[in-house]
Amino acid sequence: MAVLILAQITLGVMAATWRVSPAKLELFFWHKSTGMLILALVALRLLWRLANPTPALPSGMPAWERAAARSSHLLLYLLMIALPVSGWIVNSASNIPFRIFWLIPLPAIVAADKSTADLVALVHGGLFAALALVLVAHIGAALRHHFVKRNAVLIRMLPDAWRTP
Amino acid sequence: MKEIVVLLGLCGLVLAGALNPAQGADWKMDAAGSKLEFIATFEKTAAPGVFKEFDARLRFEPEKPAGGSLDVTIKVTSADMSIADVNKEIRGKDWFDYAGFPQAEFRSTDLRRKEGNHYVARGTLSLKGVKQPVEVPFTWTGSADGATMEGELTLKRGAFGIGSGEWAASNVIGADVKVKFKVKLRKAG
Hints:
By secondary structure, chain A is an all-alpha fold. Chain A has one domain (about 1-160). Chain A has helices spanning about 1-15, 20-50, 65-95, 115-150; strands at about 100, 105. The longest helix of chain A has about 35 residues, at about 115-150. Chain B is mostly beta strands. The interface of A and B includes residues 20, 94, 95 and 105 of A.
């Protein structure tokens, strides 16, 4: 998921800044396809999260750290949904025919309208900026847990068999 | 001067009509009931467009199609693919080149019946400065107050230089463009 999101960010930035050419359209195609894949995976992930208990935070974490962890995770989930959905709205409002990975036709969720497309494209960019900030905090905090506080918060994401005692 | 030329032209037409009664009836297009679509593909997904302005003139006798003719003029600059950014792009030199070639034409050289109400018009399509032989198949449905001709054909956009340079590659924008038409006609005169 993390790899997909980083690839997605790269594709999105490249697609947005590339000069108009077949390569730009190709970048957008992959950006949109990956975005819809991420949206589907986030939905699965949310179901999983609802059905299973979340791992407990390490004991002895100060209250502000707990609050920061909770709110940044909540923000990440919101952004992981809002980014693909806003992209979907831009695509619908722009009236661009599109099939996810050439296979699944993406239905329009709003009517074709240029001003909607322009506005939501701005929102999409703003959400991306927010995601970049939260990701920096999220990754920074994970590294801090590992290297500074020396707890298992980062390592415990690995399957049991991969962990060295 | 102009009027005289037009008058002479009209006399010529009348005369030609009188001398060639077998050429069949003249038909005029009813623009409101007619549609000319072109369907490109984008990443293997249909991307439809339409020429909002075009005109078809037809001399046609369903029972005796030979000797008839079909002339179509298409205002290329009236193309609309209903995507703002795309409509801006297709004006340019790489695509339709509105400035250089604002109009396209089809002139038939031969009309014939295939079977039943299926016909085919063979002729020349001039588009973006390129002339290519094209076969236009159509069906003919007569009614009390007129007739409808409908059909579709597939063109290679590359043959007309539509999408030149780096756009000539067909992996993103497909090579084939389907052209679909429905033309409502009324007997002229």
